[in-house]
């Protein structure tokens, strides 16, 4: 089956985007893993599938697959690229686009300056909903990693995140602690692990070891989860500039029960077609 696709990225977090509205696509974890290979396939952190909605109040269904073939609940950088993609391919003429995700919905706003603003919905903090193994909800938890006691926050943006505060992201143990915390039994569905350095109450630096993809140049849901964690710990104000290795995102969170808003770029790199 010959399939058209578009290669895109959000601050270097890169995607293969497939229009499954106007073409038939059948994916398996094995096919996704083959496509994600940066030597033998297209190469990407995630594959984004654009499908017709299953709900009348939605414009599209938004499905996300990690490089390891796992289907996941949300992708923030991907949401911005999703909005840019459906507009550029004239799958919609709207500038406000409602998409359904595996665990909820997101609203994408295409801005005149070509940035995309996303209403990411409200974070989930109840441990059972993250999911995270804990007796009761708290701003931080302690988990044992090979005898070392690690303090972190547990936040879901639809997908699970563990967020640590570090003194300096440049020297943070992302390569060693990331792979040990991602599959940690405290996170029954694994987790994306964020390493956050607080610069001031309106600015952080962040690196993310992503579930199913490893460290990426940027993580949109990770940036949202980090700001939520920082606010829960009393370290951050409502609007935060998040510096990721691939660039900056602007995140706003008024507080519990409220939506997190994310604004940033979405870039189209090339079009292609491939036999699946
Ligand atoms: N690795 C994530 C999905 C992609 C999230 C990230 N690329 C973003 O921009 O939010 C997970 O397994 O939940």
What are its keywords?
alpha+beta, 4 helices, Diaminopimelate Epimerase, Chain A, domain 1, about 280 residues, binds 2,6-diaminopimelic acid, globular
Question: Could you tell me the strand content as a percent range?
Answer: 35-45%
The CATH class of the largest domain, by name, is Alpha Beta
Q: Span between N and C termini?
A: 5 Å
- Spans where pLDDT lies below 50 across 5 or more residues: none
Number of helices: 4
Ions and ligands: 2,6-diaminopimelic acid
CATH architect. name of the largest domain? Roll
Q: Average pLDDT across residues?
A: 97
The helix/strand series, from N terminus to C terminus, equals EEHEEEHEEEEEEHEEEHEEEE
Q: Percentage of helical residues?
A: 10-25%
Radius of gyration, in angstroms, nearest whole number: 18 Å
Q: How many discrete domains? A: 2
E-strand count: 18
CATH topological fold name of the largest domain: Diaminopimelate Epimerase, Chain A, domain 1
Global outline? globular
Largest sheet: 18 strands, mixed
CATH superfamily of the largest domain: Diaminopimelate Epimerase, Chain A, domain 1
Structural class: alpha+beta
Enzyme class: isomerase
Subcellular location: Cytoplasm
Subunit structure: Homodimer.
Catalytic activity: (2S,6S)-2,6-diaminopimelate = meso-2,6-diaminopimelate
């Amino acid at each position: 089956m010959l399939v058209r696709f578009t290669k895109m990225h959000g601050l270097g977090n890169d995607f293969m985007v497939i229009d499954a509205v106007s073409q038939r696509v059948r994916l398996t974890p094995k096919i996704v893993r083959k496509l994600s290979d940066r030597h033998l396939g297209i190469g990407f952190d995630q594959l984004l599938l654009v499908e017709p909605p299953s709900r009348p109040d939605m414009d599209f269904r938004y499905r996300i697959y990690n490089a390891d073939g796992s289907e996941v609940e949300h992708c923030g950088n991907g949401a911005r690229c999703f909005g840019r993609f459906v507009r550029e391919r004239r799958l919609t003429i709207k500038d406000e686009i409602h998409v359904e995700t595996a665990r909820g919905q997101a609203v994408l706003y295409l801005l005149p300056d070509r940035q995309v603003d996303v209403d990411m919905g409200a974070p989930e903090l109840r441990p059972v909903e993250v999911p995270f193994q804990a007796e009761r909800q708290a701003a931080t938890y302690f988990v044992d990693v090979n005898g070392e006691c690690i303090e972190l926050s547990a936040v879901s943006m639809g997908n699970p995140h563990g967020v640590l505060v570090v003194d300096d992201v440049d020297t943070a143990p992302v390569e060693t602690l990331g792979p040990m915390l991602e599959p940690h039994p405290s996170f029954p569905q694994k987790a994306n692990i964020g390493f956050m350095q607080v610069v001031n109450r309106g600015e952080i630096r962040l690196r993310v070891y992503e579930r199913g993809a490893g460290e990426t140049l940027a993580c949109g849901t990770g940036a949202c989860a980090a700001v939520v964690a920082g606010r829960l710990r009393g370290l951050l104000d409502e609007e935060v500039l998040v510096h990721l290795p691939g660039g900056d995102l602007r995140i706003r969170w008024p507080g519990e029960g409220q939506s997190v808003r994310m604004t940033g770029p979405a870039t189209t790199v090339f079009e292609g077609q491939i036999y699946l």
